[in-house]
Write a structure and sequence with these properties.
By secondary structure, the chain is mainly alpha-helical. The protein has helices at residues 7-28, 35-59, 64-85, 95-112, 116-124, 130-143, 145-156, 158-168, 171-187, 190-240.
Length: 241
């Protein structure tokens, strides 16, 4: 969105880029997936996904900065709450946390394409191996791609289809990054990988919150340079006269 892409187009672009990043690892880790355990979280996510896309449609091309900041604040609050409550990893959490994590994840997926953070934190609160955790998340993410794409098309039509085709052109770079990430993840111990995941979530949140300020600063610098150029051109014209 820093490049000026509209909010719905940005969500559509991220959808296509996320497809191979989730489908390929989910297939590679398919033997680690507990499909029965994933069913209810997947259905909760589906239930709130249309609401998120509907809100995205209402927002349309405006308030995209505020939307990214809202997501960033939510992520930081969830991470802070998890740390403050000292939630130790366990086999099962109360079902209320599941509804909150995957309901919020489904809504945010439809609203801004950033539905992962609440679900990642939910998974990290379990005492699962990283392979099981990654397999669960990749499967959940992959199963949401088609419903999200259909809903975006129903609400926004060909506008988002063009954005998806543009994103598809960058898939070779995405696949290269995916290949490097899969190799690296096999070399990192589980505990270190969990901590790194939380750090990445915090960085994403900070980036989402600071993005509007960076854009304003960039515009301000551009406007200042333009004003200087116009002023110099005016001085030259006066001197010539």
């Amino acid at each position: 969105m820093l490049t000026g892409v509209s909010f719905p187009d940005a969500v559509a672009i991220s959808l296509v880029a996320a497809a191979p990043q989730n489908i390929i690892p989910a297939w590679q880790l398919r033997h680690e997936i507990d499909y029965r355990r994933a069913l209810r979280p997947m259905l909760i996510r589906y239930a709130l996904l249309p609401l998120g896309v509907c809100v995205l449609w209402l927002v349309g091309h405006g308030s995209k900065d505020a939307a990214s900041q809202i997501v960033g604040v939510i992520v930081l609050l969830v991470v802070a709450a998890q740390r403050a409550l000292h939630v130790s990893p366990q086999e099962r959490l109360h079902i209320g946390w599941e509804w909150l994590a995957f309901g919020l994840g489904g809504f945010l997926l439809g609203f801004c394409g950033m539905g992962g953070p609440p679900m990642v934190l939910w998974v990290l609160a379990h005492d699962w191996s990283m392979n099981r955790a990654r397999a669960f998340l990749f499967y959940i993410f992959a199963t949401g791609l088609i419903p999200q794409a259909v809903l975006l098309w129903l609400f926004f039509g060909t506008e988002v289809v063009d954005a998806m085709l543009l994103s598809a052109a960058a898939l070779p770079v995405v696949l290269l990054g995916l290949w490097c990430g899969l190799i690296l993840s096999r070399q990192i111990p589980d505990q270190l990988l969990k901590r790194a995941s939380v750090v990445v979530l915090v960085l994403i949140a900070i980036g989402a919150i600071s993005m509007p300020y960076l854009k304003r600063k960039s515009r301000g610098n551009g406007n200042s340079r333009q004003a200087v150029v116009i002023q110099r051109a005016g001085l030259r014209a006066v001197a010539t006269d």
